[in-house]
Amino acid sequence: MRELVTVIIPVFNTALSPTENAILDQSLGLLKSYPIIFIGAEGNGLVKDMPINDLKTQFITFPAKYFSSRKAFSKLLLLADFYERFSWSEFLLIHPLNTWLLRDELHYWCKQGHDLLMAQPDWQQCTIQPGLRGQFKRIMGPSPGEKVSLGTAFGMGGFYLCHLERIRSVLKKFKNEAYQYRHAEAIDNAEAVFFELVPNRTLPQLRRPTTIVENFFALQQGQFAGMEKGLSKKNLPFAITGIRTGLELSQTLQKLARSH
């Protein structure tokens, strides 16, 4: 029987920080009913030492070159072969340990009919605009500098939910563009920039939600900090991403974790 969704947790270092450990404990508690796979570099013993509680929790290794940095990991996420490794699942949740889950809404988001959900970039940091305002720029093709600024605007995210077959199809259809983004060393979060600019440039290839809906899926920590005073239990996002490794979780996040 095919799984609805599999949770992929990348491990970059040989030891977890206190923040990463807290995030991992929170996520394992909330997502215990889903298959969880830790992925990391070949030879990284920490991947095999991750908590394996049952048959639904596994580990898989990839070439070490993809785990030297977040930018290097983007290259792996732009390979159709990566997604083919998880073909038993309909959806993948890519969940780096810089993302705090506030509650388990994973099943809900898988059932909303979207092919890709990720935290919105900070649009004020780039000249490309969201939605219809930026459609002309997307069709004509952003400049290299605009792609770089968009990559920066995605911050330290990397948390996203995708329909495996649709993402794999897009990467195959736009394989030349995906190749260019894999080798664009100046662009941070290259996979996010690719998914934002390429598949829906003319005719939509991925079903994406509106900005308002996507903000209920995930917010960058900086965006959350600017909105948290106006947030209530009813309008909290599923996740807050881009939490800085090595820093203690804010009192706000700890309070929210206790209340949900």
Helix content: 25-40%
CATH architecture: Alpha-Beta Complex
Order of helices and strands: EHEHEHHEEHEHHEHHHHEHEH
Largest pleated sheet: 6 strands, mixed
Outline the low-pLDDT stretches. Answer: none
- Provide the domain count: 1
- Kindly state the number of beta strands: 9
Mean pLDDT: 85
Q: What's the CATH class, please?
A: Alpha Beta
Q: Pairing-aware structural class of the strands and helices? A: alpha/beta
Based on Cα principal axes, name the global outline: globular
Radius of gyration: 17 Å
Secondary structure elements and pairings:
Elements lengths: L2 E9 L6 H13 L5 E6 L3 H5 L7 E6 L7 H8 L2 H5 L4 E6 L5 E2 L4 H5 L5 E3 L16 H6 L3 H10 L6 E4 H10 L1 H8 L7 H8 L13 H7 E3 H7 L11 E3 L9 H9 L1
Parallel strand pairs: 1-2, 1-4, 2-3, 8-9
Antiparallel strand pairs: 4-7, 5-9, 6-7
Overview of the structural elements:
It is a single chain. The protein is of the alpha/beta class. It has a single domain (3-259), classed as Spore Coat Polysaccharide Biosynthesis Protein SpsA, Chain A (Alpha-Beta Complex), CATH 3.90.550. The chain has 13 helices and nine strands. It has helices spanning 18-30, 45-49, 70-77, 80-84, 106-110, 135-140, 144-153, 164-173, 175-182, 190-197, 211-217, 221-227, 251-259; strands at residues 3-11, 36-41, 57-62, 89-94, 100-101, 116-118, 160-163, 218-220, 239-241. A six-stranded mixed sheet has the order 3-2-1-4-7-6. Helix 9 (175-182) runs antiparallel to helix 10 (190-197). It is globular, with a radius of gyration of 17 Å. 38% of the residues are buried.
